[in-house]
Amino acid sequence: MSMRLPAPARREQILDVSVQVFARNGFHSTSMNDVAEAAGVTKPVLYQHFDSKQDLYLALLEEAGNRLRTAVSKAVVSAANGKEQTEMGFRAYFRWVADDHDAFLLLFGSRANRDEESTTTIRRITAETAKAIAPLIAADIDPEHQRTLAQGLVGLAEGVSRHLVERGDTFDPEVLGQQVADMAWAGLRAVHRKG
Amino acid sequence: MSMRLPAPARREQILDVSVQVFARNGFHSTSMNDVAEAAGVTKPVLYQHFDSKQDLYLALLEEAGNRLRTAVSKAVVSAANGKEQTEMGFRAYFRWVADDHDAFLLLFGSRANRDEESTTTIRRITAETAKAIAPLIAADIDPEHQRTLAQGLVGLAEGVSRHLVERGDTFDPEVLGQQVADMAWAGLRAVHRKG
DNA sequence: AAAGCTTGTTACCCTCAGGTAACCGTATGA
DNA sequence: TCATACGGTTACCTGAGGGTAACAAGCTTT
Fold first, then answer.
1. Which residues make up the CATH 1.10.357.10 domain(s) of chain A?
2. How confident is the model at residue B140 (pLDDT cuts 50, 70, 90)?
3. Between the ranges A87-96, A120-129, B103-112, where is the mean pLDDT highest?
4. Burial class (CB in 10 A: 0-12, 13-18, 19+), A152
5. Which residues lie below 8 Å from residue B5, measured CB to CB, with a gap of 6+?
6. Distance in angstroms, CA of A41 to C1' of D1?
7. Are B98 and B173 in contact (CB under 8 A)?
8. Cα A42 from chain centroid?
9. Among B26, B29, B154, beta carbon nearest to A159
10. Alpha-carbon Rg of chain A, whole angstroms?
11. pLDDT per residue over B36-75, tens digit each?
12. Where in chain A is the domain with CATH 1.10.10.60?
């Protein structure tokens, strides 16, 4: 039925397609047959490119995580002061959510199914994101607590995004990012004042 | 091996045990045999009390959700002004996390596996929690946005908790709740000022 | 102590889905 | 035009695990 494709192209296509399928239906509710069908191909083809379902899934997580990471860190670097970093960071985050939609669902959607290994990967990604944010938090509080609050901010962005994405709402990432950043920044300063 | 138990007691015991097992290993990685073994009993006994694995799992989610809901709403009601409500709410939340540990992981842990139905249930619980929080947010911004921010606050608490619980850290819910509440409250006021 | 309800066990069925062996068809290069 | 490599398919194996039928062992009530 489907056209013959050179191996690397097929691999890419499989990755593209499976992000969507997994994001929509979750890991366990998606069979390799489903993926194959969505790719217009049969199961053994998948196994020519990936060792196992796990392997495919982890590759997807990894790729999605990379895109998130680079989007946020690029944005943060290009900012001058803490406040601006906060703004740029959140705006980049929501921009990523808005146009890498399926990747977001894959990593953080309610349907994101997680066994041992995937959990580790996702946690790592979250932790790295938090790490990128941590410096924004006033340096005069103990680092332990700093990291905890950073995780909280990540959760904040995640919560907002999940709500919007799963409702199917569209949103302007710049506006939303700015609003959430305002909120977060004020919160951060409050923590600072108290120590 | 195990003692005979009257039906209601057995049912309770199964619920107690399975919260732990599911929380620790996630839905799909936990077989009914695992649950049965943990309960010191064999599989068919489980099916005397629950129609299916789904059924059991949903019962757990429901129970956990109820405990969360009542904990938070009780706390919020007993407070006078918005600031106090915020403080009481967050403290109650973290108190719940601290001593209903497994329930938290079940609902919000990384390993929380979610098919169609469970997702709906969990979303409902999150939404209800957000709804309880929404009134705290300044009334002069549009309700749509209000709800979105409320989801963000829920995410904030969730993110902080997940980080701590999954690291196995112990924490004082009162102190942590107060700190997060300070942060949240400042953020909320900032949103208020902007409209 | 026998009937009968309740609790529990053993041993099984059956489906689903991950994974693979063996085979086909077409483009390419000698 | 024949060989061969590569992309793809059909048809199967297999294990895990949800769910159940049939039977055993206790209480309890008369």
1. 66-194
2. confident
3. A87-96
4. buried
5. B13
6. 31
7. yes
8. 29
9. B154
10. 19
11. 999 999 999 999 999 999 999 999 999 999 999 999 999 9
12. 1-50
Question: Residue A171 and residue B6: Cα distance in Å, rounded?
Answer: 55
Evaluate whether the domain defined by B54-194 bears CATH number 1.10.240.10: no
What is the total residue count of chain B?
A: 195
pLDDT higher than threshold 90 for residue B18: yes
CA angle B154, A168, A72 (to 5 degrees): 65
Closest CA of chain A from B180, distance in Å? 8
At A2, the pLDDT band (50, 70, 90 cuts) reads: low
Topology given in CATH for the domain delimited by A66-194: Tetracycline Repressor; domain 2 (1.10.357)
Between CA A89 and CA B100 the distance in angstroms is 34
Interval A27-67: pLDDT, tens: 999 999 999 999 999 999 999 999 999 999 999 999 999 99
Task: Give A 79-138 residues with CB within 8 A of chain B.
Answer: 110-116, 119, 122-123, 130
Give the amino acid at B140.
D
Number of H helices, E strands in chain A: 9, 0
Which bases on strand C have an atom closer than 7 Å to a protein beta carbon? 6-11, 16-22, 27
- Alpha helices (runs of H) in A78-115, residue ranges in sequence order: 82-99, 101-108
CATH superfamily of A1-50: Homeodomain-like (1.10.10.60)
CA nearest neighbour of B147 among B120, B177, B126:
B126
CB A88 within 8 A of CB A79: yes
CA B2 to C1' D26, in angstroms, rounded, equals 13
